[in-house]
Amino acid sequence: MYSKKSFRCIVVVFFLSGLSLFCNYSKKVVAESDIEFYYQEWENLFSWEDCNDIVPLQGVELYYSAQDFSLTKTCIDGLRDLVLHNPDLLFEKNLKLIQSLSPETYDVLPFDLDVFLTLQQDCPVFSLAECNECLLNRTTDLGRRARNYFEKKIAQEVVQGYVNVGGGFAFQDLVILTNVLEKNPDAQIDFYFIDPMHEEYIDCLVQRGIMQIDLATTDFLQLFKKCCYGSKVLLDMRWSHESFKQMLRFLKNAYPRATVKLHLYSYVEDFLAECEEKKIQPPKIIISSDLGKCQEARRGLANLISYAMEKEKKTIAFFLDKDKKTGKAYIYVWSNN
């Protein structure tokens, strides 16, 4: 039986205090008085140890194969303009819609396809969200400004794909991928998304042997109507499914010549073990933001960066964090160029 604890990762102990303990930076850029960039070559402070006896919990590939013509050009153009030029307003609109839902609506969401379709009429990407309790959440002024810098910087670097650790419900990725495709509408992107928040959704699909889903032709009830889960778990799974479907549907309609494949994993360990098993080259860009005190996520991120730096030249990693003492937002950028 696969166990997360059986995955042998060697990390230095002081990493538990956070990535911000790297202090010898080769370059510092002050974007604003309370937002700073730090650039440094990645030092070999961490090592990833191969473990041949691991059976990884495989990821699931999601894509959207065809345009959805129920979305009008006016709707798509207006949504694209918001994502590109005022993502904070779109986030606020999504948040208000979600907060307005009644308990009765939440009760039927796991089972009623029409409810999601009705809500999508107000906003086609309403289920995409971020953590409102994180230090740099988008409801704060600093959070909005720091995330905008972070997303624009990453979009400048992405060509063929990236890995996001702890992306929640993918609002940040909607912004990044839209900016990437705006400059290259013919791009072929493999996007790796790692977050235990979607563990039940992934586990249920993997257990049923469903490793690839075309979200243009598959709805939630087709996949899960026979699953014996409680309504709370089904609601979480439904939200996972619809978030990724809404994002990929929008991108396919806004940029029909592009191909975006989303590879979904619960844990960094799963992704790394599958890379080893299938000889997958990790993407050259790694991102993560606002992990707070989640030490497991921070350790996973460190091991992912070390693994990628070892396997791939010209790897670059971005990490957005906030220091409670200074009240500033820091964007750390490591590379092995």
Question: Would you mind describing this structure in some detail?
Answer:
Helices cover 41% and strands 18% of the residues. The chain is α/β, with parallel strands linked by helices and 337 residues long. The protein has one domain. The chain has a ten-stranded mixed sheet with strand order 2-3-12-11-10-6-7-9-5-8, sandwiched between helices. Helix 1 (73-85) crosses helix 2 (87-99) and helix 5 packs across helix 6 (171-183). The longest helix is centred in the last third of the chain and has 24 residues, at 231-254. The model is unreliable at 1-23 (pLDDT under 50).
The SSE string, one letter per element, is EEEEEHHHHHEHEHEHHEHEHEE
Helical proportion, percent range: 40-55%
Largest sheet: 10 strands, mixed
What structural category characterises the helix and strand content?
alpha/beta
Number of domains: 1
* Percentage of residues in DSSP E strands: 15-25%
Morphology? globular
Distance between the termini: 39 Å
Using only C-alpha atoms, the radius of gyration works out to 20 Å
The count of DSSP E runs of length 2 or more, i.e. the number of strands, is 12
| Number of H- or I-type helical stretches | 11
Poorly predicted segments: 1-23
* Sheet with the most strands: spatial strand order: 2-3-12-11-10-6-7-9-5-8
- Mean pLDDT, as a whole number? 84
